[in-house]
Structure formats: structure tokens, C-alpha cells
From TrEMBL:
<protein>
    <submittedName>
        <fullName>Glyoxalase/bleomycin resistance/extradiol dioxygenase family protein</fullName>
    </submittedName>
</protein>
<dbReference type="InterPro" id="IPR029068">
    <property type="entry name" value="Glyas_Bleomycin-R_OHBP_Dase"/>
</dbReference>
<dbReference type="Pfam" id="PF00903">
    <property type="entry name" value="Glyoxalase"/>
</dbReference>
<dbReference type="GO" id="GO:0051213">
    <property type="term" value="F:dioxygenase activity"/>
</dbReference>
<keyword id="KW-0223">Dioxygenase</keyword>
<dbReference type="InterPro" id="IPR004360">
    <property type="entry name" value="Glyas_Fos-R_dOase_dom"/>
</dbReference>
<keyword id="KW-0560">Oxidoreductase</keyword>
<dbReference type="InterPro" id="IPR037523">
    <property type="entry name" value="VOC_core"/>
</dbReference>
<feature type="domain" description="VOC">
    <location>
        <begin position="3"/>
        <end position="127"/>
    </location>
</feature>
Amino acid sequence: MHRQIYVNLPCKDLAASKAFFEAMGYQFHPQFTNDVAAGLVLGDNLYAMLLTEDFARGFTAKPLVDAKAATEVLVCLSCDSREEVDALVAKARAAGAAVPREPQDHGFMYGHGFEDLDGHIWELVHMTAMPPQG
């Protein structure tokens, strides 16, 4: 199957987006980072490519979605604990993120999230078990 994932997200201000994620403790892969793109390292072989809007337009004939007005994608990342979920949301809020909803506790799964500077939705979850079978 697949060995890596690169989620491509357009950004209005690449420098501001990089500073936002760096404030949360994330790093950028130097080989995938330049003036028009930044390879946000999410884990082993997991990347979000933050792209300037002009550069992103080169990959599609469709118009780019304004993520503050419409949902284009929900990026969901697993965390090792509820505390990690809460800590990342707190860091995101401190760095300027919107946090539009309260945490969700489903028993087997705890989640919370934020919207980055461009409105992209990042969900963070900690699963303690598989969901119940219906």
C-alpha cells in the first residue's frame, strides 16, 4: 500500500502559517520547504504541504476553497493521550487558532480540534478502544 501521505493545503500567508505551526511545536522538512511550499512534519512519513495560493492553483483547474467560508477537508490526527489532545488545542489557541467547539468524549474516543489561520480544520483524537459494533 502507500508509504507516505502529503495533504496539500493552500495558505494566504505562508510565513504566518509556518510561524503558527512552529509555535505549536511542529517542524518543517527542509527538503520540502521553500518560498512557495512548506512540508509540515506530522509524523513518520506524514506531511501537510502548506502551499501559497498561487502555487496551489498550479495543481488544479478548480477554484480553491476559502476554508473560512466552506469546509474542504477535515484533517484528523491521532494523539497518544487526552492530555496531548488538550495540549495541542491549547497551543493552537495561543498561536491564534479558532476553537469553535467543545471537546467531544465518546467513551472509546476523545477529540477536540481547531481551525488554523486559513480556516483549515484540524481534528485531534485519542482512541482508547475500537468503536462499539452496532
